[in-house]
Structure formats: structure tokens, C-alpha cells
Design goal:
It is built from 12 helices and 10 strands. With about 350 residues, it is α/β, with parallel strands linked by helices.
Length: about 350
């Protein structure tokens, strides 16, 4: 657990990776894309504090030892969720496919969950793989990358008819958490394939699923906020918001946080470091220290101690059924983490 000024906080990092983007994993003939992808990630790392930057050689291949030091030792993360990203058109074993992430489950028992994925372009074989992964890894969530290339196809949409059987399968299997990358593009993927426009359709159609929109649709923050406030099962994943903006663009970060707190609400925001682009330690410390920079932000909700506890851990803990020690839970008058009715701007479907 994280301790600051005598206060203890339960930390859940809901957006972690364990990747292999080393040249040995590049598919022959696809080196330009494999190299460009990880180089783009490395460029994003430069938005964090200088002392956290790695060389590109170190950045390409994560080690178990680095993961343990960065996440559990320095970051004081109590529980983490590993998000799977395949990209098998460019990486022979996958960038961080579920089998790669699962290596860490045995090394850190009781500290991690691994999320699966699906791609409707895989058809019946994809449905069977989803069932198999759910049984093997006891899945509680999936991560979807709608801009991923597959052969000549350069992406898909959540509201594609071909995706319906997969969402139905999630419901059948009791997999409730759907993390969707909807934010800044990564070269060479297409920016428009990350648009948030297809989220509300599936959120309405599958009300028992929780849609965690990673990176909150940046740079489409207004589109995301207005959509999320009308869809009770849409949550804001703060990866990239903290790592990409808190240090490099502090005033824009304050605006984004204020908009999220106003429209989406503190009960529907989840901390994610996006490791290994950025390490969790400085982001956790920054969120615990953060407040609006001046009175020009006075029309936004306040960032309270309860806000910090919910966003940094308790919201994700509730979505993933993670046990939280009694002394780290909220007082009864501080609300219920992950409550879907937190944003109270919608009543009876009318804004």
C-alpha cells in the first residue's frame, strides 16, 4: 500500500503491460512497423519527468525484475491488471499477448490479473479462443484494440455486427470489464479507428458490461465526456491522462481532470499508469499531491481525499472483485466506489 503524510491508500493499477518489442520478435518484412510502433511509445515516454526516461534499447524489452521494481517496489501498487495487446501482423509472439502477460501471474500470485482480448475478424475461431482463455486465466476483463491491423484490414468498430457474438459471449462467460483503447494514435495505426463514436452503441446494447474507455478518448475529451455521462456503464481510464499530461501539460491536465470529475464523476474514473511507457510511482505521487493550479478552475468539482482513494484503487477494486483491507475502505458517508449513478446530470434520459 502507498503511504503519504500518515495516510494509507490502496492502489490498483488497471493498465499494465509486459511487452517484447525487441528486434528478435519483429516479423521479417514488417520491421518498419514493429520498430515504428515501439519508437512511438518511446516518444510518448518523453512526456514524463526526465529522470524516468529509458534508452530505446532498454525500453523495447521488459524484464520481470524491472516490472517488480517499478510496479510493486517503487510504485507500491497493491494490485495490477495486465492488458493484452497482440499486433501479430508485426510481432511474431505478439507485442504483449496473453501468454506473455501470464508469465507474471505465477511470479506474483495474488497481485495481478490478466485481461484477454477478442477481434471479430477472427470469426468462430476467435470465439473459441475467448472461451479457452476465459477458462485458462479466469478472465474478468478484455482489452480491445479497434485500430489493430489484420491483413489488409486496418481496423474495426465496436458496433460492427460481427462483434455482437463476442459481446454476447462475454456476458455468457461472466466477463464484465471491457477496456477499449480510444485515445492518441500510435504510428502506423489510423487515428480515426480510435474514435469514441462507437462506444455508446454497445454500452446501451450491453448494459451489464462495464466499458472502460482507456485514455478517455483524447484528444476527443468533450465527445467522450458528453457520451459517458449518458451511459451509466462507461468509465474513464486515466492512462495517458496522467502519464502524458500531468508533467508535460499541467494546465491541460487540470482541464481534462476537471471535465472528467464534472461529467463522469470520481466514482467512474480508474487510475492506470500505462506501464511500461511510464512508471506508476511518479504518477501516484502526482495525483496525491495534485490540485487545480488556480481559481480559474473554480467551476469544476474538487479533488478530495475520497476522490483520490476511489480513483487510485477502490473503483477498480470493485469492478474486479479485489479484496480491500477494511482500514483502507471508504467511510460510509464518502460514497460507493464505481457507482454507475455518480454523474447526476442525467435524469430519465434527459440532460
Amino acid at each position: 500500500m502507498y503511504e503519504k503524510d500518515g495516510e494509507q491508500y490502496f492502489i490498483v493499477d488497471s493498465h499494465l503491460h509486459f511487452w517484447d518489442a525487441s528486434p528478435d520478435n519483429w516479423i521479417p518484412g514488417q520491421e518498419e512497423y514493429a520498430k515504428g510502433w515501439i519508437s512511438c511509445f518511446h516518444d510518448y515516454q518523453s512526456l514524463g519527468p526526465p529522470e524516468t526516461h529509458d534508452t530505446i534499447e532498454k525500453f523495447r524489452l521488459q524484464t520481470v525484475e524491472d516490472f517488480e521494481q517499478d510496479v510493486f517496489v517503487d510504485g507500491k501498487v497493491d494490485f495490477g491488471v495486465l492488458e493484452s495487446t497482440y499486433l501479430k501482423d508485426w510481432y511474431a509472439k505478439g507485442f504483449n499477448a496473453i501468454e506473455q502477460n501470464a508469465v507474471l501471474l505465477e511470479r506474483f500470485p495474488g497481485k495481478l490479473r490478466v485481461n484477454g482480448r477478442f477481434d471479430p475478424r477472427d470469426g468462430e475461431a476467435g470465439l473459441q479462443q475467448l472461451e479457452q482463455d476465459a477458462e485458462t486465466y479466469d478472465l474478468k476483463g478484455v482489452k480491445l484494440y479497434t485500430a489493430e491491423w489484420k491483413g489488409s484490414s486496418r481496423g474495426w468498430k465496436l458496433d460492427d455486427p460481427a462483434a455482437v457474438p463476442f459481446f454476447e459471449k462475454l456476458v455468457e462467460l461472466g466477463i464484465h470489464n471491457v477496456h477499449v483503447h480510444k485515445g492518441p494514435t500510435i504510428w502506423p495505426l489510423d487515428k480515426d479507428a480510435f474514435d469514441v463514436a462507437d462506444v455508446d452503441h454497445v454500452a446501451t446494447s450491453f448494459p451489464t458490461l462495464n466499458f472502460i474507455v482507456e485514455h478517455v478518448g483524447l484528444p476527443r475529451i468533450e465527445d467522450f465526456c458528453f457520451m459517458a455521462t449518458q451511459e451509466p456503464n462507461v468509465y474513464a481510464g486515466l492512462s495517458v491522462v496522467t502519464g502524458g499530461l500531468m508533467h508535460a501539460r499541467p494546465r491541460f491536465f487540470a482541464k481534462v481532470m476537471g471535465e472528467l470529475l464534472f461529467w463522469v464523476g470520481e466514482d467512474k474514473m480508474l487510475f492506470g499508469s500505462d506501464y511500461g511507457i511510464w512508471t506508476p510511482k511518479w504518477q501516484i505521487e502526482g495525483l496525491l499531491d495534485w490540485d487545480y493550479p488556480d481559481d480559474t478552475f473554480s467551476d469544476f468539482p474538487r479533488w478530495t481525499d475520497a476522490s483520490k482513494r476511489k480513483v487510485l484503487g477502490l473503483n477498480a477494486a470493485r469492478l474486479y472483485d479485489i479484496e480491500v483491507p477494511a482500514h483502507l475502505q471508504l467511510a460510509p458517508d464518502q460514497g460507493t466506489p464505481a457507482a454507475q449513478d455518480d454523474a447526476k446530470l442525467v435524469s430519465g434520459g434527459v440532460l
